[in-house]
């Protein structure tokens, strides 16, 4: 079964989502004004479905129902001069003496005051408290779902502590921070195919270089350890005088076979010493090689009495040479380190141009300096998951706004949740694409008695 | 982005009976599949989308330099900025009315044509259906720096800065906190997301601040917001005598016995008092200063009392640091559970009292982060 479309084009009344997608922008542009058709229940149902498609679409319905409250926050801006000059009695003064004004019963000729408090737009204010929604509102993610992913993937901290729960309800004064790399990825232009390819190659090259460096380091360490082990073995050998280095031609064949057996046992001892070294355990690959050598030693041991002595001697020589060859530092490992920075960063190019062309005015110099600084801050780096130099993703500007209940510092990708969103005369702080009528219908749907 | 090359005219011209087969053989990675490829079918809806994106939608692809760029600022039919349309209309009207001086307008128009008229509040509507949501201005970089320097360098109180710069107190605090983090990052050499910040700030309306003229700074937001109290939501018919001097204080008492009047519930009550002393009472500067000092001393005393209380509560908790954890022991009273063992302040599990910790619908994620 195919997945249902998140940004559909088919519906006559399209679903608006919390994203910066171009489909969403198109749907927003063709969103018709609500047409009161059908029964009251039907109208409420439709309004609920449309508004829930935007507000907390990622939240389960039951969860939202638990969050919903009929208490809607509002404020009234007060003028301190008025409060200082009047104590409130002026509103009642002269009542009944002919001083009271005629009440306004909705005169059609007069335009209605625009400064009504849009309480109904505050219906979904509780969802704005959620961490994922707040991240989306701070312009750190291109959709609420992406913000949610950032949270669950551990890229978000609240008050300096990792917060893996997207449903965490922010308290006034909470500071949240998103990894700048994630933010740049979410808000930056996407790479095209070739950039992806070059980035992948670059990353692969880096990985190879890293593993080589690590190998070199372990090899060095093991070499030192082997020297220690060799010293130990040499000391042991010195203690029991069994000559090994000069291999005298044995007259007696059984004696020769015994000697070879001792050699093999010594080899096993060496391998064991390296394998069981706990201070610097050999790398996995090295371990495999060592085990292979061990197996071959055992194989040789098993055929010790069946094969001619000369053949066994040859195999022992091969094994010892292999064991000694495992450790010398690889002279080819250093290649590729200098070939890493092939693409010159833009800053260097800018510098070159600056140095090569003399005689500039102060203004031009200043501009050039700025250009150098920006290119240093915004370099070309194919290994990043977004197109470099960083540029905002298309259609972002149509969705770029920051509600007043958040204070955002984009340089450090952090924001503070100042207070819960409120409505004030003429303005509501909850960003919603729907009209007041639709919000009222949705609000009525969620009241307990409908 | 225009639709990929799968033109219906080309498809219909191919002399192939199995239409679907032909369609899928083109660029598909599965050349023998006969399944309809819904995702790439060019429907009328998709054509409409791409038509819109290539005409009206082209405005939104990149940010508009020097202005915000919201859906509500454009005429959706023509895809032209409303303010530009109106300016043109005004120009043509002027030209029709007074054709005596056409050469002057001709000179100006060359410069003005490239410039778009300044935006108005109605151009800051991101959602055309919802006129009561505006993209409100954010603090500009200079203003943030000024707030930080006033609080951290000059040592002004948050309240003072809030009044002089017309920024909410909580916002002042947040700006200082964020700035401190930013400076710390700069100090330790952690890279800032500067290109991103610049791009975002260019898309948002801002409250400017000119450091050379700090007194001419306008207001960022209203700083004396009175929260609407739940108990004032009701309409009350309260009969009193006509001669009674019925003030805000009395009205608050009628709504709720414990409700304070608006003068005490706003964030900056000191502004009201200062205005009253200056204008109504007509006090001299010295007297006002004296009273202000008295009030400040009172507030300081209150603050110290609260701090002392908090310190005492803190001291009651016995702390044992084990290197990895800090264990905190709070003295409890077993009698808090009450006679029936069901008192809400009782500690621990008690027989017969249900524990809802593990039941459905209980919030198990943290409610606050310290």
UniProtKB/TrEMBL annotation, chain A:
Is Ribosomal protein one of the keywords? yes
Instruction: For this UniProt record, give its keywords in alphabetical order, as a comma-separated list.
Output: Ribonucleoprotein, Ribosomal protein, RNA-binding, rRNA-binding
Region described as Disordered: 87-114, 337-365
* Composition bias, Basic and acidic residues: 98-110
The GO biological-process annotations, alphabetized, read as: ribosomal small subunit biogenesis
Single GO MF descriptor:
rRNA binding
Superkingdom to which the source organism belongs: Eukaryota
Instruction: Tell me where in this chain the RNA-binding S4 domain is found.
Output: 129-189
In Pfam terms, one family for this protein is S4
Q: Which CDD domains match?
A: S4
Q: Can you cite an annotated GO cellular component?
A: mitochondrial small ribosomal subunit
| PANTHER family cross-referenced by the UniProt entry | 30S 40S RIBOSOMAL PROTEIN, SMALL RIBOSOMAL SUBUNIT PROTEIN US4M
Indicate the family of this protein. Belongs to the universal ribosomal protein uS4 family.
The protein's name is 37S ribosomal protein NAM9, mitochondrial
Which species is this UniProt entry from?
Answer: Lachnellula occidentalis
- This protein's encoding gene: NAM9
TrEMBL record, chain B:
Q: Which gene encodes it?
A: MRPS35
Q: What residue range is the signal peptide?
A: none
Keywords on this record? Coiled coil, Ribonucleoprotein, Ribosomal protein
Record-linked InterPro entries: Ribosomal_mS45 (IPR021036)
Composition-biased stretches, type Basic and acidic residues, lie in: 91-125
A biological process (GO) annotation for this entry?
Answer: mitochondrial translation
Region feature (Disordered): 91-128
Query: Which source organism?
Result: Lachnellula occidentalis
UniProt-recorded name of the protein:
37S ribosomal protein S35, mitochondrial
GO CC term, one of those recorded: mitochondrial small ribosomal subunit
**Which domain of life does this protein belong to?**
Eukaryota
Upper taxonomic lineage:
Eukaryota, Fungi, Dikarya, Ascomycota, Pezizomycotina
List the GO molecular function terms: structural constituent of ribosome
From the record, what ranges are coiled-coil?
280-316
Provide an example Pfam family for this protein: Bot1p
